[in-house]
Structures are given as C-alpha cells and as structure tokens.
Amino acid sequence: MSAAAAALLRVRDLTVDFRTDEGWVRAVEEVGFDLRPGRTLGLVGESGSGKSVSTRALVRLLPASARIAPGSSMRFRLRSGEEMEIAALSPRDRRLRRLRGGEIALIFQEPMAAFSPVYTIGHQMCEALFAHPEAVGGRLSRAEARERAVEMLARVGIANPALRFDQYPFELSGGMRQRAMIALALITRPQLLIADEPTTALDVTLQAQILDLMQELRAEFGMAMIFITHDMAVIAQIADEVAVMYLGRIVESGPAREVLRRPKHPYTQALLRALPRPEAGRRRLVPVPGDIPSPRERPAGCPFHPRCAHRLPGRCDRALPPVVEVGDGHRVACVLFAEEGGR
CB within 8 A of 250, min separation 6: which ones? Predict the structure, then answer.
C-alpha cells in the first residue's frame, strides 16, 4: 500500500484568506502534507506563521471572515473507511459534528478554552460521549458514561478521579486541568488529535510529564497527532515528521530527525540556533533576526528573504522558490537548492 493510500489525512494546496477592511489577505498558502495513523506531525514556526489557521481549517473552525480558497483539498479517512473531503463541506454541514470531537479532537494551550466553567468536568466528558455514540460503540447510559469518564481521568494520571469527575474546572490545579483537557479530548478515542501549543504555559517539569503522557496515549490508542509549537526542542521529543512554516507556507518538511540534524532552509537553521543546548555551555543564543511580517505586508519572492543572511539579490526577492527534494522525504523551498549542486 502506498504512503498516500495509507494516509489518514491528505492535505493539498490548502489556502486560507481573511477579509479585512483593505480587502482579502492570504494567511495560509498552498500547504500540503500527509499524515498516517499512529504518527505525529510537528508544525513549527514563530507566531504568525499560519500553524493554527492551517489546523483549524481541518475542522472548519475558522471565523466568518475567513474563506478556504478553491483548489484546497483536505481528505480525511473516517473510521468507516469512507473518505471525507473537508474542504467541500459547508461550515454548517451536519457531518462536521461527527468529525469534530468524534474523529478529530483538539486541545489548546489554555485548558479553560476547552471547558465551560459552569459544568463539572465529568458532565462535560459525558456530554462528549453522548454527542458521539458512533465513536464509542453506541449510546451509553449515564452510569456507563460516568464509568468511562472516571477511567479516562485515571488513565491521564489524575489522582482520585471519581472526586475530580464532580469538580468544576476552576477547582483543579493547572497541571490537572491540562490532564483533564486531554481526557476530554480522548474520551471518544479520536483518530486524530490536534494539539495547539498544549505545553507552552507549563513549567519544564510539567511540560515533560504532559509530553510523555501524550506519547503514551498516542501509542496506546493508535491515533495520529498534529502538534503545533514554536519550540524545536519539543519537536525533537515528540514528532515523527516536521513541517516548518513561515508566513503561511511550509518552507521545509521531512522526517523530524533528518530535518533537525541536517536543516537546509535558513529559517529552520535560525530556529535551531535560537535553541538552548546543554552541551553548548555558555554559548550565546542567536535569535532569529527581525520579525515575521504581517500577511498584509508579504514580501515578493521568498517570504523569508528580508531576514535571511543567505539571500541572493535578484533571485530571492523576485519569485517563490520551488520545493526541492534534498533527501528521502526531506523537502525544502529555497533557491539555494533549486539547482543541482546547491549548498
């Protein structure tokens, strides 16, 4: 079976525009990737690179001011084996209810974004089960739903889960809320989990615990995961494949180990230079020069060229660079590799 045939999710030419007072602004442009069951794709880049917009498009959770451009394709294989073209669905299509929370679940940086403050943790987990009977083998009684929710709270490492089931989100500590959010997302055993900066606000110890937990659950449930972060160290720990995004485009992608060991795009290299390394001792960190521009001020040519130390005047500022394969599954969009013999 080919990689494309085995893919749970195939994204091709995903382009998202936002309506503003000045007209339409392109936030995401021609994003594409495949994701197989049981694998983790790390989406990495600075704030404003288009990571969250790309993944919210997968479940049609974009604001009313956004549109998915014609030609975009997001094909998702349901549990039934049927393929759903998400880009073709209306935002009001009833099939999206089955997709969101049942087949694809999301977790966020702030757990309170996932929970309502006026209902208990357990109530909200049970409602997820009742909303997606097809994902849990049929309709459950209240007692059965409670049992499953308590089991899931225990599985994510929450002590005394029966007590926590009846508590409100504000009664839990930050670390427990993060675990409860993961339990809420996984209660329906989704095929794909989208994790949007879920560990950024945590201290180092809690971050390591949550990352370990997510890896365990991914393996246990056989689900795929898209992990969004700006932290290359997190990518090294959790991702199988990585896609580096800059100003709405993927500029480098491939197996995580290969991309991290042999980065080709100047932007990927810059992100890695800004990463603290224990073996480097007192080596000064080198921040990425400049700032990511607004999509309204997208430069001509390669979007990174105004910040790039290797830019070639007359080339990088004129046309988008082609995507070049530089290794087994390792691709980069940079004119330095557009001709044989590159750098």
Answer: 31, 32, 33, 243, 244, 333
Q: How confident is the model at residue 38 (pLDDT cuts 50, 70, 90)?
A: very high
Query: Residue 289 in 3-state DSSP?
Result: coil
Give residue 281's pLDDT: 52
243-277 burial by CB neighbour count: b if 16+ within 10 A, else e? bbbbbbbbbbbbbbebbbeebbbbbbbbbbbeeee
Q: Does domain 3-93+196-201+224-304 have CATH number 3.40.50.300?
A: yes
According to the model, what pLDDT value does residue 289 have?
84
Rg (CA), the chain: 21
**Residue 317 burial by Cβ neighbours in a 10 Å radius (0-12, 13-18, 19+):** middle
Q: In this structure, which amino acid lies at residue 5?
A: A
Q: Nearest to residue 78, comparing CAs of 190, 2, 184, 1?
A: 190
Cβ proximity of 192 and 103 under 8 Å: yes
pTM for the predicted model, two decimal places: 0.92
CA 101 to centroid of chain Cα atoms: 15
pLDDT at 341: 45
Helices 142-155, 174-186: crossing angle, 10 deg rounding: 130
CA distance 241 to 7: 13
Residue-wise burial string across 151-172, b where 16 or more C-beta atoms lie within 10 A, e elsewhere: ebbebbbbeebeebbeeebeeb
